[in-house]
Specification:
alpha/beta; Rossmann fold; five-stranded parallel β-sheet; four-stranded parallel β-sheet; 9 strands; 38% helix; 14% strand
Length: 316
């Protein structure tokens, strides 16, 4: 495994399985009497967030602290970035304070790669979401969540049918999940109005549908995506009400899902738009589980990129 995580393409299938198994072991350890591990004691992890975030930032912060790292949370709001400071100058500041890892979320696609390749900082770079490009740790935690709900498919998702529904065009989560889930053998179908599908989607290793109802009973996993209104400057659908009617996961559609099917959402949710409150809070929903699993997966990523001791050593 490389010492950066910028894209799912950086990971082989073996790397992915290593992360998922490490996450499971770290979850087991931290659910016991050992809540905090000394693995990253003396290391400094910087959460460099140029976009607002709740789940991802808190998850990375919790993960780093459970591994005993020192954590610095950097928000563009209220920093010198709001005065015009460049990414280069910010990176050089982090280099000067001795950052060992930088977890970056940025509104521009490719920002994480730029930081990694620039030579501005000698630190491990982890992509926590860059523009509409990728969000690799979200896909990893989604795969971890699926593997726990379908334990018979822990290392092989062959035969698993996954629907990713909604704003594919603006979704970095969709891109990372397509890469990861197909790498593990799952069959992925993207469901959205034509206006919310990216150019070139026909070259992706997926099926494409415009009708949520047609195949809904066939899916093991239905992953709803947030409509990213903040990234939309044009009209992509007639109205929110019309979108919800055709592509929202409501109670009627929930009843038509497979008995064993699960509902996922990366958050934050627009309740009543892409998903109803009843669907989000149903027994089929693993949305809250995704948040908790995110801590274990991000612990695993930090552990494998920065750690050194074996898990048997740190759990003593």
């Amino acid at each position: 495994m490389k010492n950066q995580l910028l894209s799912i393409n950086d990971l082989s299938k073996d790397d992915v399985l290593s992360i998922l198994s490490t996450a499971a072991e770290l979850e087991r350890i931290t659910e016991g009497p050992t809540k905090k591990l000394p693995t990253l004691r003396g290391r400094t992890v910087v959460n460099l967030f140029f976009e607002d975030s709740t789940r991802t930032r808190i998850s990375f912060e919790t993960a780093a602290k459970r591994l005993s790292a020192d954590v610095i949370n950097f928000s563009a709001k209220g920093s010198s970035v709001s005065k015009g400071e460049s990414l280069k100058d910010t990176a050089q500041t982090l280099q000067a304070i001795g950052a060992d890892a930088v977890v970056i979320r940025h509104g521009s696609s490719g920002a994480a790669q730029r930081l990694s390749d620039s030579g501005w900082i000698n630190a491990t770079v982890i992509n926590a979401g860059d523009g509409t490009h990728e969000h690799p740790t979200q896909a990893l935690l989604d795969a971890f969540t699926i593997s726990k709900r379908f334990p018979e498919r822990k290392s092989d998702f062959s035969g698993l049918k996954v629907a990713i529904v909604g704003d594919i065009l603006h979704s970095r989560v969709a891109r990372s999940n397509v890469l990861l889930l197909t790498k593990l053998g799952a069959s992925v179908t993207l469901i959205a109005p034509p206006t919310l599908l990216p150019v070139g989607v026909e070259s992706w290793p997926v099926l494409v549908s415009y009708d949520l109802d047609e195949e809904l009973p066939e899916f093991d996993v239905v992953m709803m995506l947030r409509i990213q209104l903040e990234r939309m400057q044009n009209f992509y659908f007639p109205s929110e009400r019309e979108y919800s009617r055709r592509y929202g996961l409501n109670e009627d559609r929930l009843l038509r899902m497979k008995q064993s099917g699960i509902v996922m959402h990366p958050g934050p949710m627009n309740r009543g738009l892409e998903i109803s409150a009843a669907s989000a809070d149903s027994s089929r929903s693993v949305i809250v589980n995704q948040v908790g699993n995110g801590v274990s997966v991000r612990m695993a990523v930090l552990y494998l990129l920065l750690g050194g001791a074996s898990l048997s050593e740190v759990s003593q």
